[in-house]
Amino acid sequence: MTSAQENPETLSALDRPNSYIGKTVPRPNLDRLMQGRGLYVSDIELPRMAHVVFLRSPHAHAKIKGIDASAAKQMQGVIAVVSGEELSKIITPWVGVLSHLKGLKSAPQSALAVDRVCWQGEAVAAVVASSRAQAEDAAELVEVEYEELDAVTDMRTALDSATVVIHPSLCDNLAFERNHDAGAVDQAFAEADEVVEADFVFGRHTGVTLEPRSVVADWNATESRLTIYQGTQAPHMVQNIAALHLGLTESQVRVVCKDVGGSFGIKVHIYADEMATYALSKLLRRPVKFVADRVESFNTDIHARDHRCKGKIGVRRDGTITAFEIDDLTGIGPYSMYPRTSAIEANQVVNLVGGPYLTKNYRARARVVFQNKNVTCQYRAVGHPIACSVTEGLVDLAAMKIGMDPVEIRRRNLIADDAYPCASPSGLRFEQLSHHAALAKLIRMMDYEALRADQAALRAKNIHRGIGIASFIEVTNPSAAFYGVGGAKISSQDGVAVRLDAQGSVICQTSITEQGQGSESLTAQIVGSVLGVSMDRVRVILGDTDNTPYGGGTWASRGAGIGGEAALQAAKALRKNILDVAAAVLQSTPGELDIVNNGIVSAVDGTPRIDLNELARIVYFRPDTLPPGIQPEFMATRHFVPREYPFAFTNGVQASWLEVDTDTGFVKLLKHWVVEDCGTIINPQLVDEQIRGGVVQGLGAALFEKCVYDERGQLTNANLADYLVPMSGEMPDIDVGHVVSPTLESELGAKGAGEAGTAGAAAAVTNAVNDALRPFGTVITEIPLTPQVILAALGRI
Amino acid sequence: MTTAVAISFVVNGEHIEASVLPRLNLADFLREYLKLTGTHVGCEHGVCGACTVRVNGDIVRSCLLLAVQAHNATVETIEGVSDSGEIADLQSAFRDRNALQCGFCTPGMLMAAQDLLKQSLSPNRQQIREHLSGNYCRCTGYQAIVDAIETTVRTRAGRLP
Question: Smallest Cα–Cα separation from A266: which of B47, B108, B138?
Fold first, then answer.
């Protein structure tokens, strides 16, 4: 563990007297959102804009025998009713595979279904009208004749020979399989004093962004340009994919991303209905708007998780973990999502199981199968909650088996804080983690011993409270190793352009995007700090492919670590340019000058020399007065991507304190603690709120959220009344603490913080529930932990 | 149901007359006819609370109220209570505490919070949490929102004579 970098040059950049790095400052532009003056895609209106409503399949698997749209086309306001076949002349199909996931296969998918539908909710026709209401009215008159086919719904039987193959050209329903075998697993299990096994079940859930997915596509035929307004986390990816499938160049496509009403990985993908909207705009030569309603969101926003994982752990009496073994099965729907693919999560599960622990003996199999259900793909903390729940569930079971305290077994097995660099059992390379420091801090924060005493006292009164601990590692700051090596044109680098304007203010254009995490704030904080300019003089422009450098966007916790470093380096370059000019004007040298509080000062004693606005005035309006040979460049651009390590792994530990009502099966969350290590913290408040928001999404998965399908592939709870998400009344206060180990990959030292909360929350809650239920001799390894699951485990129903 | 109905009401102090289909809900009316896009539509079935507005002083889900039902009523939206300064202190507390991330739930959250503060002078944290239980926030985890409202409770109490 380190608390600060030792590079003196770095210290000078980050520890400037007027630095905003490490300080809690309010995010810019919050007033706009608080006064209802944001501009979300659902708010956008353009002249001649039409509205599209998609007619969606009521069947999980069916042939489309015919579509009769004649009555709909006669309706007032209807502009067009378009079938899949008609739209396929405008936009080409795609296949969601990546070459580095060896053997991953999928079938061609179209913007609208052609001949066959593969899940309930797949769009079969588009109705475009002057208003949304008119389009909805007309959609009711479109008649589609279906021939229902057998549906693959249970992933456990998806590979059986008796099960229908969803895509006959693929021969079977196996999308991807990965096997991993490291160390001497059989020998390690043989040498263990105890071997414990468990079957873990993870429900299918989804992101529930409060603003549903929305797109306005505007094809301007006179310019041969398509402008896409979309709440996306990756504007340049959308630009690339839209251009590719519409037969355009990237320069013919502009993606504009204003305010985004929640993302969490839901809006990092490109959906078939969005592709259809781009194509409809081109076909109809006018702006077309698509806003999903809540039922559509549930049926078509990517789902996540849906795993069944057999886990096994070997342990010696002294607490030494000898081996982990897992066999994971996950169902992904009928297609691998494009372009990020739906196999990344299972791959992450294999990567991350056992990650915090010393044992090198690890065997894993992951199989990814097709189903006739909505597609699953990357959602916040991809694979992390599965890996963490399996690992930490097994560690707790091992501890229970040998009668050791859950904290003690972790102390004996977590990788030592001075052991780095080192590698995980799955071969991940760790630069610097801080498991022991984090665990020690957590134990202090929660007053572990006192809680144990409370628990014992209350148990005597038949009140069943539990403590659950979960250590985790987190993948952040992905390099090209994540997607680029597999052939996906998803940028791993980000860029920032910074310029000083004519009044001494700063404008920065960054390729990362803002969905509420605080990208604008962290960019302004970094740039303001390096340039010695107050934050109110820094304006950040993002979310526009015409007006920002090319880059990846904001996902996988890469905004601060990658985009932030690009901002730092761009600002440093501009700072040098400014000081060079100032030195010439002031007949000084750059080394004798500094920039503080919006002005050039003497580096030695801080004496004001010239205001930035005065320097800018001279440069922009009286360059004739500059000394000969001076060509001021008040704009600088830098790009950044980590190169030494493919990811910045972060780590942390969570604890849950809760009470189980053994009569009703309800779980009451009492308190939650998190300690995490995201390296350099740019804005403590924003980091803490990322953690808290992430924890609550993890708590949702642990206790409430599940997409429930029946045996025919019908989603039976596709609304917010039946699909439960965490509400304020059920959520506990969450204490957040930090250990700081900056990454040496960048000068800034920032790693990601967005996944940490979600990664470990469900594991902590499950372990706490099992801890509470210990007197009943039952162990639950299924989430969500609904009252039904708990009462069934207790044998009460 | 396909014939437009004339309605007249006051929105944020402005007299509005319109002719609308009976099926049009108030949220869509505010957004599409008056361009008051601060009222957000999250679920369209009265669960998420993003479309919360005040009608005759009470908070309602504007997705569950038909525009024609607001005839002769007084309607206040986030734009109105922002411009009047009524919730300036609440907004300031939200800003200081980062009690919003994506901001989509925030107008509804502020309307609900102000409603609580008008009803109760000193709600505790649990009462705040319960009052907000009709408003989904998917980003913050709620704690910052509860903190910001608690701060506002204290500052308003300090202003009392």
Answer: B138
